[in-house]
């Protein structure tokens, strides 16, 4: 297996997933097996992988997020309310909400059910306290988010974001 692979994820059962420029692969017994159910849908580079309930979330550069579960795979993209189809990173908060980082800012997805058109989306961007719109990585720890951005790192409380109160504390800025 020699494809560029920006993302690795080991699921709770110990399976190793590879997110590459050629799609999603399952790595078992030293063999990378393509997941055609996903790869036939996206034809895009994968930037991040994350478990959310029964689904493996597959962040792409250009097609949004694939929610993969064998036989029940679907996509959330700009048509359904995503800020951008180019997703850099993802994280899950303590309320099981999905947070995504893009070049247009950060977004919280409150996903209830399997219909992305019925979900609620909340955008966090420069106007709401993010130091820049570029979000390269997210880490959720101890009820706080740490966001790696194009203008330093910031820390914020995800529950405060929904209240539109003071969001961020910027650290290590240029």
Give a brief outline of the structure.
With 174 residues, this protein is mostly beta strands. It has helices at residues 36-42, 158-163, and strands at residues 7-10, 16-20, 23-28, 31-34, 46-52, 55-60, 65-68, 74-76, 89-92, 98-102, 105-110, 120-124, 135-141, 144-149, 152-156, 168-171. The strands form four sheets. It has a four-stranded antiparallel sheet, covered by helices on one side. Strands 5-6-7-8 form a four-stranded antiparallel sheet, with helices on one face. A four-stranded antiparallel sheet has the order 9-10-11-12, with no helix packed on it.
Can you walk through the features of this model?
Helices cover 7% and strands 47% of the residues. The strands form 4 sheets. It has a 4-stranded antiparallel β-sheet, with helices on one face. A 4-stranded antiparallel β-sheet has the order 5-6-7-8, covered by helices on one side. A 4-stranded antiparallel β-sheet has the order 9-10-11-12, with no helix packed on it. By secondary structure, the chain is mainly beta. The protein contains 2 helices and 16 strands.
